[in-house]
């Protein structure tokens, strides 16, 4: 009995630590629980639901996305000049994780509200990069870059560290599904298949460079963590993230590690840490709430859900 209690306590402790770091402790599950029968932007049969709930894949893919996104001089200029990620990195993580979670698993209303908030913020993120070029976070081409860098890394994280692997057709479905989010933010010509993503990267590579701001961001990310234990975990995840980057991106950012080290040290370490995180965080409360919402019968027009009678006479 004491072993069971101890195991439950350990699992609860791990889950609490991970959720407090990623989501700020409050999962705000109401966004995922209601209304009954609402599939949200995607739904449980989509590849997005499968990919975005995998903890090790999303952790490493998210870090890889930050590294890859930093290679666009205009994107990193906006982050460097408008973001407080160095002073409040956890807050930035909470906002990003919350946006991905609610657009993936939240109700349609909650997802649309999150998209609207981000669009409003983007209107104010504008300025001039160190090379003299103006930038705007609402620029459709810049939005496309941020989206493709992010989702390609999420997919790579799932393929390497997730449960199972997606087929070629499922990978195409993932890009086609998740393009909806980018388009609703204002992105244009969003790649919707693996072949289109490859062509996109080939076309944009000439615009990418490791600016001073990019290298500073990479240095910050590699040493991030308020406690020694968290810094050690971040190092493990960061090394796994580097192994997901295209070789040309890792070389440009000066983070490339020898292939034998990646295969024999970095990736096994992520798998081990990922098993611990899965133990503490699964089953996911967010995904569970979303599944229950989708499976619940829709309320008939004019009739309140069971257990919540319609008030009479305005009472």
UniProtKB/TrEMBL annotation:
In terms of superkingdom, the source organism counts as Bacteria
**Top class in the EC scheme:** oxidoreductase
GO MF entries: oxidoreductase activity
What are the ER-bound oxygenase mpaB/mpaB'/Rubber oxygenase catalytic domain coordinates in residue numbering? 49-278
State if S-adenosyl-L-methionine is listed as a keyword.
no
Q: Name one Pfam family in it.
A: MPAB_Lcp_cat
EC number(s) for this protein? 1.-.-.-
Keywords from the named record: Oxidoreductase
List the protein's name: Oxygenase MpaB family protein
| Organism, as annotated | Streptacidiphilus alkalitolerans
